[in-house]
What does this fold into?
Amino acid sequence: MQKYIPILKRTKIFAGVGDDEIVSMLSCLGARLKTYKKGEYVFRQGEHITDITVLLDGSLHIQKDDYWGNRSILGEISAGEMFGEAYAYDSCAMLNDVVAIEESVIIFFDTKRILTSCSNACRFHSIVVQNLFFAISEKNRKLVQKIGHMSKRTTREKLISYLSEQAKKQNSANFTIPFNRQQLADFLSVDRSAMSNELCKMRDEGLIEFEKNKFRLLQPKHLNLNQI
Amino acid sequence: MQKYIPILKRTKIFAGVGDDEIVSMLSCLGARLKTYKKGEYVFRQGEHITDITVLLDGSLHIQKDDYWGNRSILGEISAGEMFGEAYAYDSCAMLNDVVAIEESVIIFFDTKRILTSCSNACRFHSIVVQNLFFAISEKNRKLVQKIGHMSKRTTREKLISYLSEQAKKQNSANFTIPFNRQQLADFLSVDRSAMSNELCKMRDEGLIEFEKNKFRLLQPKHLNLNQI
DNA sequence: TCTTTTCTGTTGTAAAAACAACCGAATTGT
DNA sequence: ACAATTCGGTTGTTTTTACAACAGAAAAGA
It folds into this structure.
């Protein structure tokens, strides 16, 4: 368990907690380690889980099968990431499979013991609860934003929605995005070439300028950026 | 404050907490009431909030303006619903406006006081923390599911994704959905008539049967529902 | 440096969706 | 019972997208 302290220290759930405190909290939180071989299932659809988990080593796929058996991969989890936290509740079943795509080490924390004040009242327990809350909140915000973009009807509107958000976030009409073209297309769930085409049309119409992943929004229609 | 106890009792955050306990917790959690006139802003884009809020009376719109000033309404909040909880964190700014669309009463809870064990250790504090966690988790799950549907390229795939999920959730190939056609189209972000058209094509091809909001999935390709 | 690979933009075509307009059935209200 | 409204389905047109194939530039690797 000791060797994973550096990884745990870098996770959101233990942000602001020192090495020593993490060690003493591992037992307090009822932490358990488990290793999975490549191809082994960590969670299965329909399963009821009660633990919050962090991937310490390896990588996982979140995948889903539809009624007709078609499989799709929803996302990848890499070391240090927390997962399953939204399902760590008795009355709800996992809706996806989680599968190890290489040998992986996972640490399990009993959700109840995290959420309930422990009897020996360890100092950092409330920090962990707050961290957990903030981590879920952040995931939540990102999901809402993504839906906001995806819900637009046309590729152009999706792009405008996304680029507007980035400009706001970076507080400037000039900004850098964390995606290349293919990644942005995947994020917005559109075809790359069609998106690239649309970006260029928008550039030709004088709406935006860009080079690589650096963008600039133009024509604010007499609006000050601060008003937005 | 007293008159809103019945509403609070029905909220997710106070599930399992009795009337008396709610009253005693209101001060413990630092609750504050505020009334908003029609059109008044509850939260503004860019604002940093520190409270978790519940709408006690009235209704609110969550809306967003893009860089060019186009406004879109992302959702409506009605009495008893919690909101803003994903933004109740110092380092993050509200990304949307929240506006009262009629006279509304809102209760504010200081997030820190909810997440930190209170000194007088009221019995139900940990229940509320758990409730809060479960409520956010549930929102999170719903968002992930929605993204799963929306990320499909065609209307047909979106429908299959959504209907598969419903079948799984209700554990039967026969199930009822909580939407009419327009609502389902809005949920999946597609055009109603196009979706209606696609549904009928799928019915003609023998994939599904439906009447009103009752659906049945057919042709499981030799798959048992339990395997999915 | 030269080769290979990745990234981005471009074009054309076929497929799909949005949009608009309409109709009949069902529902609601009076 | 009647009128008005909502709801779901249908059709045709226009717009948009996905898809495929390709090419030049940039980056990475040998």
Q: What stands out?
A: Helices of chain A lie at 5-9, 19-28, 111-115, 125-150, 155-169, 181-188, 192-204. Chain A touches chain B through 59 residues (CB under 8 Å). Chain A has two domains: 2-139, 152-227. Residues 125-150 of chain A form the longest helix (26 residues).
